[in-house]
Amino acid sequence: MADETISSGYNDVTFAAWVTSDILDEIRPYNVMRPFFRYAGPQASAAYDFPIQVDPGPSVAYTEGTGLANTALTTDKATATAGTRGQMATVTDEVEETAVLSVSSQAAAVLGRSVLEDFETLATAFIDDFANTTGTDGVPTTYATLLEAVNQLEQRDQMGTPVGVLDPVQVGDVRQDVGTSGAALFGSGMANASQAATLNGYAFTLGGVDWYQTSTVTSTAGAVFLSGIALGLYEVRPLRIETERDASLPGTEIVATARYGMIEIRDVAGESILF
């Protein structure tokens, strides 16, 4: 074994230096994207097919006495294949016994957050991939940019509830634009833009859309998309944290894992916002 968590690496919480028992953790919204997926729970399969009804096209004029021709209705599918993601740490008895807090509990929390951050990183990669885009690479996102993105999505006649997910840089750019242009007069939702993001990443409401932020967004694009329509999540197993005793060290192995797969279901239900 290698890279065990030992007392020399965790010396900020051992009695070698007197510290408070509280560790001030960085609080980041690692669970922004999850509620916006179409969700499928565990099945007896490593993959899950999200069915897609193919648009049959417009109806045709009907002539009395002449029967309508059949339209062959077809479906498509988007397949999400589940894979396991995880991390492990081993905490020796020595570090556990000489710490002023439970190192094992702290390690479990850290590993759990790591798995959630990994989920969020994979999820936000999809919003950079929509074929339709608004904005320009290298140009700050503005109030008008967001409204244009929402309008472009609406013009494609996709039914559903739109939601926006942005990089914190984009959120900051919009807040600055609102502050200098007077756009704050457009609604009370923008008043929340001056507040720090809550634990679910909410930033503000603009153009009838709730906008969220997460630092896992790529450095090229956020997006507005239809919640539960654009993206699919097949989750075989949510975050699970397990421990196993290793008496030969002696110490405890702490393992955090999750098993899931993601897929884009409907590309036209999203609009990437470049910046």
Could you explain the architecture of this structure?
The chain has 275 residues and is α/β, with parallel strands linked by helices. The chain contains four helices and twelve strands; from the N terminus they run E-E-E-E-H-H-E-H-E-H-E-E-E-E-E-E. The strands form three sheets. The chain has a six-stranded mixed sheet with strand order 5-12-9-6-8-7. Strands 1-10-11-4 form a four-stranded mixed sheet. The two termini are 45 Å apart. 32% of the residues are buried.
Features:
single chain; 275 residues; alpha/beta; Major capsid protein gp5 fold; four-stranded mixed beta sheet; 4 helices
Task: Point out poorly predicted stretches.
Answer: 13-27
CATH class of the largest domain: Alpha Beta
Shape: flat
Q: Overall mean pLDDT score?
A: 85
Q: Please give the CATH architecture of the largest domain.
A: 2-Layer Sandwich
Counted by DSSP, the helix tally is 4
The biggest beta sheet is recorded as: 6 strands, mixed
Give the SSE order as H and E letters: EEEEHHEHEHEEEEEE
E-strand count: 12
Radius of gyration from CA coordinates: 24 Å
Per DSSP, what share of the residues sits in E-state strands of 2 or more residues?
25-35%
Q: What is the name of the CATH superfamily of the largest domain? A: Major capsid protein gp5
**What helical percentage do the residues reach?**
10-25%
User: In which order are the strands of the major sheet placed?
Assistant: 5-12-9-6-8-7
* CATH topology heading of the largest domain: Major capsid protein gp5 fold
Query: What structural category do the secondary elements indicate?
Result: alpha/beta
